[in-house]
Amino acid sequence: MYKEEIEFTSKEEFYISTDKNLLDKDVIYKFLSQESYWLEGTSRELVEASIENSILCYGIYEGDPTKGNPKQIGFARVVSDLVRYSWLGDVFVLPEYRGKGLSKWLMTIITENPKLKGTNFHLATRDAHTLYEQFGFKSAEKSEVSMTRPLDWDAINAIYKKETV
User: 123 in helix, strand or coil?
Assistant: First the structure.
């Protein structure tokens, strides 16, 4: 059983932590449901369930999240068995904080995590290939041996008693 080991690091006035208790779920929900292309219109309940059920969530903050009232400005979550497989999703930095190297810093922290470092990492992106390639991601090889099962919002929402997204 995985026992969460909280990561905490800082760079100038910015901080990254894996402490889920520090996450500002309002910021995360607002971005994912209103500004992302991959979860636009999703319910808050599903966003919160995805956070709760992910093995690691990374928050980026302007200001120390353990003191005062810092602002959450970025997020990423990882689903993994911490041995062979990891999936990275819901990665974002708020638009007004982009261009400061925060996404590269976040990706360095995630990909250098000792329990994730060697895993077969997956992600899907429409527009950030250049960023992820810097961290060893590449287009799937031998896609003819890979299979996926499509997302079924009706089945997911039935579990959470929500209408279709």
Answer: coil
Residue type, 161: K
Q: Are strands 8-11 and 56-62 parallel, antiparallel or unpaired?
A: unpaired
Work out the end-to-end distance of the chain between its first and last CA atoms, rounded to an integer number of angstroms.
33
Per-residue CA distances from 120 to 84, 138, 154 (Å): 6, 11, 29
Residue 46, SS3 per DSSP: helix
pTM metric for this prediction: 0.88
Judged on CB neighbours under 10 Å (0-12, 13-18, 19+), 86 is: buried
Task: Rank 60-64, 120-124, 132-136, 153-157 by mean pLDDT and report only the highest.
Answer: 60-64
SS3 89: strand
Secondary structure (3-state) at 105: helix
Residue 14 forms beta bridges with which residues?
11, 62
